[in-house]
Amino acid sequence: MGSMFRSEEVALVQLFLPTAAAYTCVSRLGELGLVEFRDLNASVSAFQRRFVVDVRRCEELEKTFTFLQEEVRRAGLVLLPPEGRLPAPPPRDLLRIQEETERLAQELRDVRGNQQALRAQLHQLQLHAAVLGQGHGPQLAAAHTDATSERMPLLQAPGGPHQDLRVNFVAGAVEPHKAPALERLLWRACRGFLIASFRELEQPLEHPVTGEPATWMTFLISYWGEQIGQKIRKITDCFHCHVFPFLEQEEARRGALRQLQQQSQELQEVLGETERFLSQVLGRVLQLLPPGQVQVHKMKAVYLALNQCSVSTTHKCLIAEAWCSVRDLPALQEALRDSSTEEGVSAVAHRIPCRDMPPTLIRTNRFTASFQGIVDAYGVGRYQEVNPAPYTIITFPFLFAVMFGDVGHGLLMFLFALAMVLAENRPAVKAAQNEIWQTFFRGRYLLLLMGLFSIYTGFIYNECFSRATSIFPSGWSVAAMANQSGWSDAFLAQHATLTLDPNVTGVFLGPYPFGIDPVWSLAANHLSFLNSFKMKMSVILGVVHMAFGVVLGVFNHVHFGQKHRLLLETLPELTFLLGLFGYLVFLVIYKWLCVSAASAASAPSILIHFINMFLFSHSPTNRPLYPRQEVVQATLVVLALAMVPVLLLGTPLHLLRRHRPHLRRRPAGRQEEDKAGLLDLPDASVNGWSSDEEKAGGLDDEEEAELVPSEVLMHQAIHTIEFCLGCVSNTASYLRLWALSLAHAQLSEVLWAMVMSIGLGLSREVGVAAVVLVPIFAAFAVMTVVILLVMEGLSAFLHALRLHWVEFQNKFYSGTGYRLSPFTFAATDD
Amino acid sequence: MLEGAELYFNVDHGYLEGLVRGCKASLLTQQDYINLVQCETLEDLKIHLQTTDYGNFLANQTNPLTVSKIDTEMRKRLCGEFEYFRNHSLEPLSTFLTYMTCSYMIDNVILLMNGALQKKSVKEILGKCHPLGRFTEMEAVNIAETPSDLFNAILIETPLAPFFQDCMSENALDELNIELLRNKLYKSYLEAFYKFCKNHGDVTADVMCPILEFEADRRAFIITLNSFGTELSKEDRETLYPTFGKLYPEGLRLLAQAEDFDQMKNVADHYGVYKPLFEAVGGSGGKTLEDVFYEREVQMNVLAFNRQFHYGVFYAYVKLKEQEMRNIVWIAECISQRHRTKINSYIPIL
């Protein structure tokens, strides 16, 4: 948990991987997921790297796998993920896997090809049979005799042998969408010297490749003359029609049909055999494919990582540079030792100094992950900067709950989250693919806390589905008031609203033990009372939250060794914030404590006091809160304003002053200066690279020399303006707590009044009421969930998010880092 | 059409315009070309193309990789994109896109007819046809013996039909006639397309008209160049020129009289646009007239992207993509034939 407060120390390590053991080492590191490799060959293009041949081989293999997978998918089988963790196979196994896969793929291709050919054949037979059996016959014969009877009757009797010689047929099948175009083209090209009849097939045939049912149009064209016949054949060719021989005699056709049916039956038997064999092959594929895929994927990842290494001058080992958490260094060393001893050599890792900012590593567990996610969504923290996530764990649900305070709604949310938390280990829940569901599921602990805090604030606001609950006896007594002022029955009947006066003895017995007194829910001034309370509460929470943010900055300054910023930045900032807005908070609390109902008539107005504080004036009608108030206020304002120039000029002047002697002394003793510079740097790691030390020192100096006064000044000016204006606007921004909680309360109030309470008052008879209440309650429940829980919840979430990102985090968090993304096989294993 | 495409253009075509601009952004950059030129083998070329927006388009090709495979796959990709545009387009953009395909259809028809003349099998030629210009009746082209046959039987239902009015004749289809047919078809196609863009008005006309005018002039030049030393008479030649563009009418009359390249160049010298182009021919790097025209075309097409709310981007994108494909094929050819000296004479797309 300690690592939550700031990101872990990460070091740049140099790994010397002996060529023989490099593969096993990297593969082991991939299993552990400890290090992030740096690309040492950024200037070398992808196909000129060292292991490109191996990568290409893996890709070849993956291509085959894709083919196999496609085949399996087409057969309607499901690939199961492999069981257990499979390590990346040793390189020599690649050949074996490749061979096995190739053989299997070849076998599958053969069988599939056979099956395809058989099916195509069968398809042809079926089409042929369909064309023959389609019954173009009688119709065509009729047309045929008609045609001849028009032309020939004078010369010859119809049905003579001569006429049969001259009529030819082309029969076949075509896809339905092409049929009209074909028909038209035939007609145009042959100028009508033909009779074509098209018919749709009654039952669809299976497509030989895809296996989907497809209907076909069969056609029968009769024509006169050989030239036209050629044309027709060309045209049918170009439309990719299946053309079949069409015998002229009815008898012969029937014979052919019978033969075809017989053939297709035989073919179907053969096809059945082939398919059985195919399923056997597929069964083997099912066994081989999943582990093979994982293994080759890992192998490829290893080679890609190895491609990022540079080769040592002796070619004996590969040199890799990697970021690794300091905490994991022993594990890294051990892993390297373990995986390289087999080869009789040893891989070494040692830390090297580095000038680049290391990546940020914050370990999370399933509870903290969602909170860290909220912070990271704004920006991954700079290396070793204070991480706001641990504080967010409490403040985020709390600020959310301030806006969402309702016992009932909070309870529903809590139960929903609790159900998710309890079911989190069930595989069905984990495997759910729905994106929206996953979003909620990942934030389940966040939701849990949000629900819990909403219940708490709901009790404070004393609201449960907008109704007040009286757990404790109310602190107000109506009876005492009635007795004291002698209200008669007639008086009571006449007046709809009456005032309870707390100054009358016995009416106000003391504050309600916890939260808002339920009697307020009956009061006409319920809303103005709550508004005053919530507004002040928002300002108090806001100022505390922001001050906490400024204080967190202290840890950053101390950690990065910038002590001057404590004095020149944090202190002025705190003074400014607390002197102005902290004082406002003080006024609020002071008035709560010291002004009682007795003096309510002449109670001072904080608002006027606060405005007067800035104007250095005082209004005679507004009674001071405490003696010498004006002196205190004037001091605070002067102090706060005096802090602005300090904030504006302090850091730049300090940096310039520290920088100037540097410049002056430089020509004199450069060496010592360099050393001193190095020692000054808190992050500079101890190293044995004397040649680099010089270089690093030199670089450091040059960098400081680049300190441009105008730039520093500009940066600080922007920061100052942002902070000072931000204090005003951010404090105002916290009023959204009040606004949202008001909106939520009013919305649930409206829902109750417009739906449920109308339903309850609808009928006095129990039977009718029971029947009526069912749909009304259903409507109430649905609207509660949809509007109040989901919609309002999302909006409150959004505003809580904004308060954290903008108002809180801009006080100390820069979020300009980048995450450590270790080289790991975890994604492949899943 | 009313002026002011800004108001309503996006209602119908905004999505596609955004899409085509995104596609344009995926064209290869100068850096990509530099890397491609360094490739040693086609496999390297493939690996490098994988890092660009082409992605894994060659992944399912069996070895060995050949230039024609790359070409086919690239065409398929372009065709896929174009089909997507077309399927999502509304009028009048869909008509515009149809016009764009017409030029490919003309080329395909001519190719098939030539093939039929040389007694090649239809299958073989189909492979060479551009997929953008495919249509169902295409393969039946070889049954026609005269242009009017061709029109009446086969092309009457295709978008090419209107362009046939000028070239109905009963002449047998020999090589010369086919070439004439192609040019006449192209001429009426360009004129119709030009008229369409002109009538459409607005930014589309502003952008497309110069591009088409250039296209017309380029055709006129190329026809002239190709007719030197053939039996084509000057009068016939003049009938083949598209009747619009910067050269129309004076320049075309002069071009019709030209007898060799120098005379053609003299004609071009009268035009500020074409003078520099002709001067660049044969200069450094031994550029041909074709190269120079391609460069000019690329320039114009890139400029088309500077304006919004018009259809010209679709035309320009397809042309740029085609140029890019020509470049890749050129580089691939140079690599596979180990002819590296000329590898740099691709036409950069800026």
DSSP helix fraction of chain B: 55-70%
Sequence of secondary-structure elements of chain B: HHHHHHHHHHHHHHH
Q: Helical element count of chain B?
A: 15
Strand percent estimate of chain B: under 5%
User: Could you tell me the radius of gyration of chain A in angstroms?
Assistant: 43 Å
> Structural class per helix/strand content of chain B?
mainly alpha
| Structure summary, number of beta strands of chain B | 0
Distance between the termini of chain A: 27 Å
- What is the subunit organization of this protein? heterodimer
- Overall average residue pLDDT of chain B: 84
Number of domains of chain B: 1
| Unreliably modeled segments of chain B | none
How would the blueprint of this fold be written?
The complex is a heterodimer of chains A (830) and B (350).
Chain A: E1 10-18, H1 22-32, E2 35-38, H2 52-74, H3 91-133, H4 136-151, H5 161-166, E3 167-174, H6 179-189, E4 194-200, E5 205-206, E6 213-214, E7 217-224, H7 226-238, E8 242-244, H8 250-306, E9 310-311, E10 317-325, H9 329-341, E11 348-352, H10 369-378, H11 389-404, H12 407-422, H13 427-431, H14 435-442, H15 444-461, H16 478-485, H17 489-494, H18 526-559, H19 563-594, H20 606-615, H21 629-665, H22 670-680, H23 690-705, H24 709-733, H25 736-760, H26 766-808, H27 826-829
Antiparallel strand pairs in A: 1-10, 1-11, 2-10, 3-7, 3-8, 4-7, 5-6, 9-10
Helix pairs in contact in A: 1-8, 1-9, 2-3, 2-8, 3-8, 6-7, 10-11, 11-15, 11-25, 11-26, 12-15, 18-19, 18-24, 18-25, 19-21, 19-24, 21-24, 22-23, 25-26
Chain B: H1 5-25, H2 30-37, H3 42-50, H4 67-87, H5 93-117, H6 122-128, H7 147-154, H8 175-200, H9 202-227, H10 234-240, H11 250-257, H12 261-269, H13 274-280, H14 289-304, H15 312-336
InterPro entries (chain B): ATPase_csu/dsu_sf, ATPase_V0-cplx_csu/dsu, ATPase_V0-cplx_dsu, V-type_ATPase_csu/dsu, V-type_ATPase_csu/dsu_dom_3
Pfam family, one (chain B): vATP-synt_AC39
Family (chain B): Belongs to the V-ATPase V0D/AC39 subunit family.
